[in-house]
Write a structure and sequence with these properties.
The chain is mainly α and about 200 residues long. About 75% of the residues lie in helices and about 0% in strands. It contains seven helices and no strands.
Amino acid sequence: MRPILHHQLAQTDALLVDLGRQLARYNAGDSDTEAAVSTLLAAAAALYERQGRHDLQARFLAMGAELVTARRGTDPRTLEPMRPRRDGVRRTVFRVLTAAEAQIGADYRQTLSKLESLREQLAALLATGLERGLLQPLIGNGPPDQATLQAIWAALTRDTGTGGAALRINLQFAVYDVLLLIDDLLAPLLRPATPS
């Protein structure tokens, strides 16, 4: 099953917002940052598990293990006792926060890039469909509803001029993402003209 990228992007964005809060807490010297970061890492691992992305789940579980190891007074990198313990835990929290930011940020940018690629492919496909006269009978005088969006996509997939490109999109992306972007791309064309 292909992932729904809009949903993935929203979930990753929520993680980034939480991560930003934890970084602000760390920067402010909040003494409760360690527990909050641990909660963030567990939430990230759970999210990636639900998405079936077990490589990222394992990465966030490993970051959580680093914090647990530091809390127990052992340097997670050398496995030597930390002296002083509090400074070692703080360094570990910083290291984990920066690693989490790098991973979640990369995941967000990758998902956004996939959506932008889909947007570009659909824009070209819709332009071809409009040129070929496929869409005009389906487009009404306002924003299209779900049934209209599905009819537009079906027309593009059945046509000999656009069907091959539509098939490639169907193989790579969830229909939900396709329909949302078709709606977004057609919106400027369907706005009522403003009187001048």
